[in-house]
Design goal:
Distance between the termini: 82 Å
GO cellular component, one term: cell periphery
Strand content: 35-45%
Structural class: alpha+beta
Number of strands: 13
Helix content: 10-25%
Keywords: Signal
Protein name: Pistil-specific extensin-like protein
Pfam families: Pollen_Ole_e_1
Order of helices and strands: HEHEEEEEEEEEEEE
CATH architecture: Sandwich
């Protein structure tokens, strides 16, 4: 009887160990997971529609650029959004025998296939790019950064850039 209990406990522990190994094998070690969503926000609608009526955009291109310690591009990758406007970019932490530092990476909007909603906004840093700071999820070998949501808008909602230098005056930058 005692031997049966020990065997049963041993079998259960083995099954739990196998389950843990299976779960761990699903996560790719040495890979950063970047995820987010791209939405269209139309300012021509009423307030309620503007605040709540965002819609996902399928096929938007989102990129990630990682710099090395000398501010040179070490990695560039991109992904297209799915039907729900979601993207997920996997970045290998080791490129050319060097480890990428997530704080040297930024994610930004590249393009929208939508004929109406195709002006990138800087809400959540979509147009200029958002740096990776804190991972949203860290579990075993999984390191995931959630960014955004990023937004596109219609040309009618685009605000003109007023930060440009007056004509005839050159900028030092």
């Amino acid at each position: 009887m005692e031997m049966a209990k020990v065997s049963l406990i041993g079998a259960l522990m083995f099954m739990i160990w196998i389950n843990d190994m299976t779960e761990a094998s699903k996560v790719e070690p040495g890979v950063l997971h970047l995820a987010g969503k791209v939405l269209c926000q139309d300012c021509t609608e009423g307030w309620k529609q503007w605040a709540e009526g965002v819609r996902p955009i399928k096929g938007c291109k989102v990129s990630v650029t990682c710099m090395d310690d000398r501010s040179r591009v070490a990695y560039y990758g991109s992904d297209l959004t799915n039907d729900a406007g979601e993207f997920e970019i996997l970045v290998n932490k080791h490129v050319n025998h060097k480890e990428l530092k997530p704080q040297n990476c930024f994610v930004r909007l590249v393009s929208s296939p939508d004929p109406v909603c195709n002006i990138a906004t800087d809400f959540s840093g979509g147009r200029t790019g958002v740096k990776l700071t804190q991972p949203s999820i860290m579990y075993r070998n999984l390191v995931k950064y959630a960014v955004g949501p990023f937004y596109y808008t219609t040309p009618m909602c685009d605000e003109p850039d007023t930060s440009a230098e007056p004509e005839g005056k050159e900028s030092n930058y």
